[in-house]
Amino acid sequence: MKKLILTLMLLATVTARAELTWLTDLDEAKKVAAKENKKILVDFTGSDWCGYCIMLHKEVFATESFEKFAKDYVLVELDFPKKKEQPAAEKAKNQAASKKFGINGFPSVIILSAAGKELNRQSGYGPGTGPEAYLAKFTDAGKKGKVAAPAKK
Fold first, then answer.
1. Closest by CA position to 115, among listed 38, 23, 25
2. pLDDT digits (tens, 9 = 90+) for 87-146
3. Integer CA distances (angstroms), 57 to 9, 67, 100, in order
4. How far is CA 112 from the centre of its chain?
5. Sequential DSSP letters for 34-95
6. How is residue 122 annotated by DSSP?
7. Residue ranges of the domains in the chain?
8. Does 107 sit behind a cis peptide bond, omega within 30 degrees of 0 on the bond before it?
9. Is 14 exposed, middle or buried (0-12, 13-18, 19+ CB in 10 A)?
10. How far is CA 136 from the centre of its chain?
11. CATH number of 21-143
12. Greatest CA span in the chain, whole angstroms?
């Protein structure tokens, strides 16, 4: 019985994936990105009401493919919930960032330089797109030297 329990514990440890760290403060993310020489991935989401946001998290952000992709980024989630309470300061910062980057819908994912310059963006998510196709939109643009136009201010 002890061997069975030890085996199950070992399997659980081996199959468990690392938990990704999502910051909720863009200014903090810029500091971390500068220190670690990484870009910033910002997810503008409605985590408790936006069906496509929930789908994006389940089909892309919760995958091993995204975990590998994310090692080169500081991750930021700027949430716009309708059902759960959010601290007033966090809500105000998120709204200011949304306005700054011209967010018109959810989900919207933006790639920024460590200094905060917009490099790429994707708005929306289609059912069944999957992690490889979705993430290729970011990596292909970088490989070809193409950069999405920054949001109009």
1. 38
2. 999 999 999 999 999 999 999 999 999 999 999 999 999 888 889 999 998 876 544 444
3. 27, 12, 24
4. 12
5. HHHT-EEEEEEE-TTT-HHHHHHIIIIITSHHHHHHHTTEEEEEEE--SSS---HHHHHHHH
6. E
7. 21-143
8. yes
9. exposed
10. 14
11. 3.40.30.10
12. 65
Position 140: which residue type? D
pLDDT, residue 139, reads 79
What type of residue sits at position 61?
A: F
How many helical (H) and strand (E) elements, i.e. helices and strands, does the chain have? 6, 5
Question: Which pLDDT tens digit goes with each residue over 46-66?
Answer: 999 999 999 999 999 999 999
Cβ-based burial of 17 (10 A; exposed 0-12, middle 13-18, buried ≥19): exposed
Q: Tokens for 141?
A: 């643009």
Alpha carbon distances (Å) from 67 to 6, 16, 123: 27, 12, 20
The token pair that represents 87 in the structure block: 């601290």
Tokens coding 102:
């011209």
Q: What is the pLDDT of residues 69-88, one digit of tens each?
A: 999 999 999 999 999 999 99
Q: How far apart are the C-alpha atoms of 111 and 41, rounded to whole Å?
A: 5
pTM attached to this predicted model: 0.81
The residue whose two tokens read 């789908």 is 55
